[in-house]
Write a structure and sequence with these properties.
This protein is mainly α and 452 residues long. The chain is built from 17 helices and ten strands. The chain has four domains: 14-144 and 426-451, no CATH class; 157-235, no CATH class; 250-284, no CATH class; 313-385, no CATH class. The strands form five sheets. The protein has a two-stranded antiparallel sheet. The N and C termini lie far apart (70 Å).
Length: 452
């Protein structure tokens, strides 16, 4: 092989390099298009156009119309509004030279004093560098805040959800003094829970002798948390609380008759929770008050009948089981919902399942006072109409756009942006280290200079 051929082969890009360049160039166009999208969202939200469609917020409209999750929608709106006050970052974003990930991180802390510095880091560093710098700066700024202790108390939280296995996952963030109380309570409860169990009832690998195995500490903490909850609920001062407030509701399928002692079906499940084994529902049914809601083959609660204008607890539970939350299109609220008479009581409407629907407070007000209406057919279909008496979801569909048309639009829209495969590439080179402490110090100094 001649030297010239060797040089030509070395200089010719490989298939991987050509494909990578195409991907990077398209990403540049996507970044520019994302900036354009956020500009439109900022106007759409500022003008409150989503109110005309009956949504409680722009995030709920994005969730319904654009497929964004609520958290993602709120984050995009935050970034969109922040960009309105950061012209330099927006200019680079609109030119495809900044990614949404970098912009999202910078807008958490960016202002007129540190915008140039953050842009310099974003152009030369990766998204990881920007996110890490913003995280370290946010923490340093928080520690310097004289109201830091008060903010810790204000930002306390506890969240929980059911995972795919049906187990409850609890996550808490508490100030140190509250956290210490919780830890002490768990430690006291752990003293009353056994730390060993019979051999063979726990997975292999745990310590123990031939007859018993030692319980993992994490498992004992879980048992201790349950013990703390039971102790509180059994406290005498709480014994007179309203039953429905603390009632555990289990729905039993149409082929089961737990009231007659038969085994519940496989579709037994907690209200607003996962399915439970038949043994679990039988155990809970041994010593508890029960409310039986009979359901048909489709899982629909059967009607209970008309009694009064106010909704009795039994009908309320059946209504909750049927609707699960607000029925207004696009609404995701499942708590703090009201029972609404589709045909108003004053007009002869009955307090029955066929004439009731769950609505959140926002949409309940819209239906009564905002010009919207709720209707129901004889077959039980429920729908809503807007202020123009047009049925929601019956609007003419927008023309679909193919991927080819989307790319062609981006090339035309941003033709003068001169976007290439290097537009959004970091200028950082492998092996270089970023001095985060020095960068944070510079940002704090610029902040203090701006304040003074």
């Amino acid at each position: 092989m001649s030297p010239n051929l060797t040089v030509d082969a070395r200089l010719s890009p490989s298939d991987g390099e050509r494909l990578g360049a195409e991907i990077a160039e398209i990403c540049g166009y996507i970044h520019a298009a994302t900036c354009h999208l956020l500009d439109l969202l900022r106007t759409f939200d500022a003008e409150r156009y989503w109110e005309e469609l009956g949504f409680p917020s722009c995030a709920h409209w994005l969730n319904f119309a654009c497929g964004f999750g609520l958290h993602s929608a709120r984050e995009r709106l935050r970034v969109a509004h922040a960009l309105g006050g950061l012209p330099k970052i927006r200019t680079e974003f609109a030119a495809g030279r900044l990614s949404y990930s970098k912009v999202r991180a910078m807008t958490r802390v960016a202002d007129a004093e540190n915008e140039d510095f953050l842009l310099m880091v974003a152009k030369h560093g990766t998204a990881h560098h920007v996110e890490k710098l913003v995280s370290k700066y946010s923490r340093a700024e928080k520690l310097q805040n004289p109201d830091y202790t008060e903010n810790l108390h204000r930002n306390r939280e506890l969240t929980y959800y059911y995972d795919d296995d049906g187990c409850l996952v609890v996550k808490a963030r508490l100030p140190a003094e509250q956290g210490e109380l919780v830890v002490k309570a768990l430690e006291m409860a752990m003293e009353d829970t056994p730390d060993v169990r019979p051999k063979g009832t726990w997975p292999a690998g745990t310590s123990g002798d031939d007859t018993v195995e030692r319980e993992p500490v994490a498992a004992r903490r879980a048992d201790a948390l349950t013990e703390v909850a039971e102790t509180y609920l059994n406290n005498s001062k709480n014994s007179g609380s309203t039953a429905d407030r603390y009632q555990v509701v289990i729905h039993v399928g149409p082929h089961s008759d737990i009231s007659a002692g038969a085994a519940p079906g496989r579709d037994s499940h907690l209200e607003n929770g996962p399915h439970v084994p038949a043994g679990t529902s039988r155990r809970i049914g041994c010593d508890c008050s029960r409310t039986i809601i009979h359901e048909d083959e489709k899982g629909e609660p059967l009607s209970i009948g008309r009694r009064s204008r106010s909704i009795p607890p039994a009908i309320r539970r059946a209504l909750q089981a049927r609707d699960g939350g607000c029925r207004f299109p696009g609404c995701t609220h499942t708590k703090f919902v009201d029972g609404h008479h589709i045909r108003h009581w004053a007009d002869g409407g009955e307090t029955s399942l066929d004439n009731l629907v769950l609505l959140c407070r926002h949409h309940h007000r819209l239906v009564h006072e905002g010009g919207f209406d709720c209707r129901c057919s004889k077959s039980g279909e429920i729908w809503f109409e807007d202020r123009r008496n047009q049925r929601l979801r019956d609007h003419p569909p927008m023309n679909s756009i193919s991927p080819e048309d989307s790319l062609a639009w981006m090339y035309r829209e941003f033709d003068k942006a001169f976007i290439t495969h290097e537009s959004c590439a970091a200028k950082w080179h492998a092996g270089e280290q970023m001095d985060y402490e020095h960068a944070v110090w510079l940002m704090l100094a610029s902040r203090d200079a701006g304040v003074t």
